[in-house]
Amino acid sequence: MQTSGDRRQLQLALGEQINALLSATRALSERSAAHFHPALQPAAFHVARWLYAYGPAKPSVVAEAVGMDRSSTSTLIGKMRTLGLLSADPSPGDRRSITVGLTPEGRARVAATLEDRGQEFYTRTESWTTDDLTRLVELLGRLTAEP
Q1: Are the C-beta atoms of 102 and 85 separated by less than 8 Å?
Q2: pLDDT per position as a tens digit, 44-94
Q3: Among 3, 26, 71, 73, which is disulfide-ready with 63 (CB 3.0 to 4.6 Å)?
Q4: Sign of the four-CA dihedral 40, 43, 48, 52
Q5: Pick from 112, 46, 104: nearest CA to 76
Q6: CA distance 40 to 104
Q7: How many CB atoms lie within 10 A of CB 102?
Q8: Does an H or E element contain 98, and which?
């Protein structure tokens, strides 16, 4: 029979594992950012990944989507343009503003980085059974669902 102390220990152990997962995710994000382009800060990969997934957008939209302030995003976009990773074109609806998008080089770098990132993930889970993966997906879905 489980006691409330046993349950509390399990909840603490879960918290430790979640913290370990977050730390591993941060470390993987840092490695992914360096793989994407070593001359850029890690936020650049988040910007590029968002553009890869959603396509060209105004810098203000990108900033909001990735949780950065507009001035930092603007500076980062400028550096990424200088490196040939992003292009900027006049916005279709407002010629005074721009829309940024990945260049072919930028898209290729994001794709290669995601492949590298995915390989690490697959390596960690390749020996897991389908039941283990299914159960983890279900449990994480319950943990992250709105209350």
Answers
A1: yes
A2: 999 999 999 999 999 999 999 999 999 999 999 999 999 999 999 988 877
A3: 73
A4: positive
A5: 46
A6: 18
A7: 22
A8: strand 98-102
- Domains of the chain and CATH, by start: 4-144 (1.10.10.10)
CB neighbours of 56 closer than 8 A, spacing ≥ 6? 89, 99, 100, 101
pLDDT at 96 over 90: no
Q: Rounded distance, CA 22 to CA 122, Å?
A: 17
How far from 46 is each of 51, 79, 108, 130, 138, CA to CA, in Å? 9, 14, 15, 30, 26
**Does the global pTM surpass 0.70?**
yes
For 36, 79, 106, 133, the CA distances from 83, given in Å and listed in that order, are: 12, 6, 9, 40
Helix axes 104-125, 4-36, angle to 10 degrees: 150
Residue 47, number of CB atoms within 10 A of its CB: 26
Place of tokens 């916005």: 91
- pLDDT of 50 reads 97
Among 98, 92, 105, 91, which residue's Cα sits nearest to residue 48?
A: 105
